């Protein structure tokens, strides 16, 4: 059982982010593993463990040959990584990213399952996992809050507003997992040291046969404007004349919060 | 100057390798996620959360600086960073790891036979066996060479009699490293705590290191075989070398505790308004924070350089004495000043400050009192030992 996990290395969310003039994120600082991807990594490690064999391979698209986020996932226990890093990738849109990741999966060669987060914590397009599946011609199962593999079939619980759907498909398949699907392990110090010597296969656009199809040249969508969220409006105030509690309950019920 | 640089004013963490940085971030996350939500309750109740031990072991923290036998073989700096991040959580958490790794696993690793290493170290690294270290006695603290616990040879066995006090983890430990006088001088013994005649008791009503178990144990004709003696431990050098290892961890741990207080004080001062402005805007508060920032930056510098000296094999006991004395003093002064900035809130367990402040009272005394380390430095400066 070989599982490929799509992982993104993102600017540290605890440091105030900066935008470049072209509305892309400033990615010059050392990136970290997107926390939402740590769930996929943990899920993959558990599935391989349960299958009794195989390995977890990471794939990532990142500028400047960055591996610091990958090392975190390798320290958790992934066996190896493919890193697509090339100046030619600058400006790549979501579909272009999916093309790169699909080519990386083909390069890995023997994947039974691809896991990804439902969306990244910096771009939030939420479209990449299904695009990867489409490009590979594999089934896409989305928003999994539980994943089981048995007899060449993957079964997931797909999170819905009211509960969950049970969805099955044959393998290979692409599954996007929600945060909380499993509790990611802390990398052990031995894992951290071992990660240092785990192989990272560095590939360029040319290596993947994607010259001209990615980067600014291949992008078919662009972010033309970035606006601040409007300042939060003052809330509604209830003077308590003895009915405030009921009014608040009614208000929350309207919002479907309770 | 951004507020995030307060705890690393001289950007010393830039000196860390990628692996050391990942270790730092991992332990920081573990402490924030698993330790901080429960520490006040454990401190209040006077308990250590034993259910966290398997996770502490999985992180590779038990015997992290030892090589082989299931241990991670970390650099001195990595071990220091681990202690710093743990003690940012609580001195009791760092003490648990220090006692297991530096005081119990280290002597077996350094002075034990191959059989002893194979038998004990992997299970201690896995947290399946918890150790305690018996050197201090009710009447013998700074002068352990005068200890009265005795080991008498009886055929192929040893019979141990005596009492040890102020022992971290006594009462929860499965094994005790016991130092005792013999006819040939001081020797070390591995004593399983279920051996007949071994009895441990928890010390109650202490007001420091409350999230850590402290106890005493009595040895009443405890009979153990010669194979349980640490063959390479001869004289006071045995226990003292263990203490030097543990003190090194305290040098870094004190930085973590002090930095936690500094951060809490800064956050509180910038948020607390009196007379229509944040108290951070008053000169007395600023002078306090300037002093704390300088003290803790100095402490960090000592820790980092001591780590480098240790990695170069040039770290002498007097270096450790200087850094332990300096850093714990810096941390306790910082904690006390932080307490004043927090005012009445400074005495509440809702903030970390009072907890660190009273913990550091123990840290100031254990592993060589501030006074003894002063005399070590005095001896280094003059060549004259004041305590002999």
Could you characterize what this model shows?
The complex is a heterodimer of chains A (258) and B (388). With 258 residues, chain A is an alpha/beta fold. Chain A has one domain: HUPs (Rossmann fold, 3-Layer(aba) Sandwich). In chain A, 28% of the residues lie in helices and 22% in strands. Chain A has helices at 35-51, 68-76, 94-108, 128-136, 189-195, 215-218, 244-254, and strands spanning 3-6, 9-10, 32-33, 56-61, 80-84, 113-117, 140-150, 153-159, 164-170, 173-177, 200-203. In chain A, the strands form two sheets. A nine-stranded mixed beta sheet of chain A has the order 9-8-7-10-6-1-4-5-11, with helices on both faces. Chain A has a two-stranded antiparallel sheet with strand order 2-3. The longest helix of chain A has 17 residues, at 35-51. Chain B is of the alpha+beta class and 388 residues long. Chain B folds into three domains: 3-125, Butyryl-Coa Dehydrogenase, subunit A, domain 1; 131-228, Butyryl-CoA Dehydrogenase, subunit A, domain 2 (Beta Barrel), CATH 2.40.110; 237-382, Up-down Bundle (Butyryl-CoA Dehydrogenase, subunit A, domain 3), CATH 1.20.140.10. Helix content of chain B is 51%, strand content 16%. Chain B has ten helices and eleven strands. Chain B has helices at residues 18-45, 53-58, 76-89, 91-111, 114-125, 237-271, 283-311, 317-341, 353-365, 370-382, and strands spanning 67-68, 71-72, 131-134, 150-154, 157-168, 175-182, 185-192, 198-202, 214-225, 273-274, 277-278. The mean pLDDT of chain B is 96. Classes of the chains: A alpha/beta (258), B alpha+beta (388). The A-B interface holds A 15, 32, 68, 71-72, 75, 185-193, 195-196 and B 4, 18-19, 22-23, 25-26, 29-30, 55, 58-61, 64, 72-74, 78, 82.
């Amino acid at each position: 059982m070989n599982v490929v996990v799509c992982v993104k290395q993102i600017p540290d969310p605890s440091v105030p982010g900066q935008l470049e003039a072209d509305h892309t994120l400033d990615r010059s600082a050392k990136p970290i593993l997107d926390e939402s991807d740590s769930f996929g990594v943990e899920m993959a490690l558990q599935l391989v463990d349960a299958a009794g064999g195989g390995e977890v391979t990471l794939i990532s698209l990142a500028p400047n040959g960055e591996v610091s986020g990958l090392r975190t996932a390798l320290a958790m226990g992934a066996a190896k990584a493919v890193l697509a890093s090339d100046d030619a990738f600058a400006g790549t849109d979501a579909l272009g990213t999916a093309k790169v990741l699909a080519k990386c999966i083909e390069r890995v060669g023997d994947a039974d399952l691809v896991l990804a987060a439902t969306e990244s914590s910096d771009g939030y397009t939420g479209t990449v996992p299904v695009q990867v599946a489409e490009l590979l011609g594999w089934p896409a199962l989305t928003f999994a809050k539980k994943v089981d593999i048995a007899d060449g079939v993957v079964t997931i619980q797909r999170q819905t507003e009211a509960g969950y759907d049970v969805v099955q498909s044959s393998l290979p398949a692409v599954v996007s997992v929600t945060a909380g699907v499993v509790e990611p392990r802390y990398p052990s110090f031995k894992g951290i040291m071992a990660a240092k010597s785990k192989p990272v296969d560095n590939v360029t656009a040319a290596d993947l046969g994607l010259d001209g199809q990615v980067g600014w040249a291949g992008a078919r969508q662009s972010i033309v404007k970035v606006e601040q969220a409007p300042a939060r409006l003052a809330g509604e105030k209830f003077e308590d004349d003895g009915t405030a509690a009921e009014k608040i309950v009614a208000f929350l019920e309207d919002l479907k919060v309770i | 100057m951004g507020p995030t640089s307060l705890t690393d004013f001289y950007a010393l963490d830039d000196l860390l390798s990628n692996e050391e940085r990942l270790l730092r971030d991992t332990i920081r996350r573990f402490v924030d996620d698993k330790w901080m939500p429960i520490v006040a309750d454990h401190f209040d109740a006077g308990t250590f959360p034993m259910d966290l031990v398997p996770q502490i072991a999985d992180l590779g923290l038990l015997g992290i600086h030892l090589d082989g036998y299931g241990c991670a073989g970390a650099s001195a700096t990595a071990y220091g960073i681990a202690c710093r991040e743990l003690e940012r959580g609580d001195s009791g958490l760092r003490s648990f790891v220090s006692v297991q790794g530096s005081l119990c696993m280290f002597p077996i690793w350094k002075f034990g036979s191959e059989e002893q290493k194979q038998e004990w170290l992997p299970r201690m690294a896995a947290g399946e066996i918890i150790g305690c270290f018996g050197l201090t006695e009710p009447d013998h603290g700074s002068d352990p060479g005068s200890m009265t616990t005795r080991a008498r040879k009886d055929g192929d066995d040893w019979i141990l009699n005596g009492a040890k006090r102020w022992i971290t983890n006594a009462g929860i430990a499965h094994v005790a490293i016991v130092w005792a006088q013999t006819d040939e001088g001081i020797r070390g013994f591995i004593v399983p705590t279920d051996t007949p005649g071994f009895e441990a008791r928890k010390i109650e009503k202490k007001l420091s290191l409350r999230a850590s178990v402290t106890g005493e144990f009595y040895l009443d004709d405890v009979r153990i075989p010669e194979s349980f003696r640490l063959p390479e431990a001869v004289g006071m050098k045995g226990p003292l070398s263990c203490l030097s290892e543990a003190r090194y961890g305290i040098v870094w741990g004190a930085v973590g505790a002090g930095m936690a207080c500094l951060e809490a004080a800064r956050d509180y001062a910038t948020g607390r308004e009196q007379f229509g402005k944040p108290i951070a805007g008053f000169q007395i508060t600023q002078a306090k924070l300037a002093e704390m920032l300088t003290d803790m930056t100095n402490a960090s510098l000592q820790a980092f350089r001591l780590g480098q000296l240790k990695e170069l094999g040039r770290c002498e006991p007097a270096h450790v004495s200087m850094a332990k004395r300096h850093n714990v003093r810096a941390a306790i002064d910082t904690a006390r000043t932080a307490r004043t900035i927090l005012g009445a809130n400074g005495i509440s367990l809702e903030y970390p400050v009072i907890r660190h402040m009273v913990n550091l009272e123990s840290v100031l005394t254990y592993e060589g009192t501030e006074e003894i380390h002063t005399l070590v430095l005095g001896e280094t400066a003059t060549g004259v030992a004041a305590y002999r």
